[in-house]
């Protein structure tokens, strides 16, 4: 009943907004001197529409907005998109969450809950998304289950980058920035026709320097960027009915990995802890972190080639083909404790490569817009994580045997996915439209998991021989590099993995439009995210058991209302997500301590409210504010150990997770931005502006009142950014001085527990810089 009352209140408020919008007069329209961002043309439904004509929860930012707010990566979307969160992982894979729907997993080939695209081409895995914000026309963020239109099926939503396209005349531009830590960012493009039928655009960006982390044990710094990304676009129109678009892009990342920040030392076996380890200094300030001397290193890369063809079969039908191939490679050495000791230092390396093909037919037959299509994806990956165990306090498992020094976890897998989809949008009347979409997806994944000892001394192999002998009286010999993971018969070896799944996702919607442009919409949809195979250090083969597909049923109502002649735009929505088999990383306990496996949460739910206001009340002032409220809950008990009802949180503490909030889903998120410009002479304007981000408290682990998991608490934070500068009235050039995190707020987005300490990844401190851009 609580949710029905809340939704009723929301609908009453929405009705008031609609009433206000309907009452506006033509005189009020004269007050608005410019159009609001709501007029951005988007392609969220694979055809061009005004953003406020789309009955979906959607947010779009123009390329100019991205530059003003200094949104340089998908992680920076937290500045502009309420309900969007970014969480760093220990490896190269970022984690994106929308409205509390996400998957915290750092495997190279783990399909995300929030899909990312470049011009409708999937950037299939999170490691591939790092260079996506280069030279953009806009970015579109769709919230809720996706799949009936976009190539990948997802439960959380989708981020679609739209690259700036080749121009009909010669154009060029550049922008750059420098901050107090010495980081230099430079970006530029050239664009224009090569022949009457061929256009090109080349864009390049580099980020160099800027070490901002300070060691808590010595005079040392970390955090230098060494990042290069580029994109070449070619548009060829050999005839009036045929067009090809080619996209080649990629990046090289040799920058310093982020070092952890120590929370506290908590050894499992104090007698075996390394001398001095317990004297390591906790982080107190935003820049505080620690790492072993000379250890962090990175050499990651990615490239993608894509070809799109559009053939107009008639005035009302078009055939589209999108073909792409992409490959990401990781090769990095990572600190893993927040101390100056070589504690569980990680060597992470591997690759993931993907081939995608989509073919679709679309048409516009009067009141009916339709799409039918099919897609195919083939993925191959190899993912390795090697842990240095030399000073871990539980390295002696059986007294009398040598301590093991090394553990290497690996998984090689192949994945094939094919799908068939269709979508209809029918205008029933001038005001009322109905939408329906359907998608069938089949996914097959096979792989091999293996945990082994790389070292010739082979202490881990000898240990597992002893474990076999103690259980069954005999042992299969294990040599260096042989898999130690034990099956149900206590025999070691590689673990074959297989997962085959099919699903049907769908969407139904109604849109009602008033004369003044106000849109009221309601949608019901079902989305799926494919099952996953984990890369974990596995003692038992059951740790490699896959997490099966997750399902999310979404119910949403919303309104998009232009007010006062578009001087004010109000968008609001209420939603309820019914979650089945949500995928999370679970914890298992054994003699080796706290290990991991993928599990499914049988039942959980998300209830939320969301609102965004964009305003231009007077000439020169642009402001926006958005907020999301989430009430999440796990509504069933779960098990992290097969065949039992036992569940452990990230601290290894037994917990009944029923009633717990979903981790990494803050109850409140608020974002805001404002800028005011005014003429100071000629075509020059002065400007002042700023932004705000607020996230309420969160937790990086399963937590309840009985088991609060306080060590994993993510504290609330408010971050304010400021900027001031000069610009040309026509936008040709712009120069600003800016301050990020003005009040030097200490903030973090995740917490980890190793065998012997707790650590977190902290966000950047107060940073002062200058930026310039030039677009003649």
Automatic annotation (TrEMBL):
Residues 1-23 form the signal peptide. It is found in: Cell outer membrane. PROSITE patterns: TONB_DEPENDENT_REC_3 (PS52016). One of its GO terms (cellular component) is cell outer membrane. The keyword DNA damage does not apply. SUPFAM superfamilies: Porins. The keyword Iron applies. Coiled coil: none annotated. Keywords: Cell outer membrane, Ion transport, Iron, Iron transport, Membrane, Signal, TonB box, Transmembrane, Transmembrane beta strand, Transport. Residues 274-295 are annotated as: Disordered. Residues 54-158 form the TonB-dependent receptor plug domain. InterPro entries: Beta-barrel_TonB, Beta-barrel_TonB_sf, Plug_dom, TonB-dep_rcpt-like. Gene3D superfamilies: TonB-dependent receptor, beta-barrel domain. GO terms for biological process: iron ion transport. It comes from the Bacteria. It is a multi-pass membrane protein. Residues 283-742 form the TonB-dependent receptor-like beta-barrel domain. PANTHER family: FERRICHROME IRON RECEPTOR-RELATED, TONB-DEPENDENT OUTER MEMBRANE RECEPTOR. Belongs to the TonB-dependent receptor family. This is TonB-dependent receptor. The lineage of its organism: Bacteria, Pseudomonadati, Pseudomonadota, Alphaproteobacteria, Sphingomonadales.
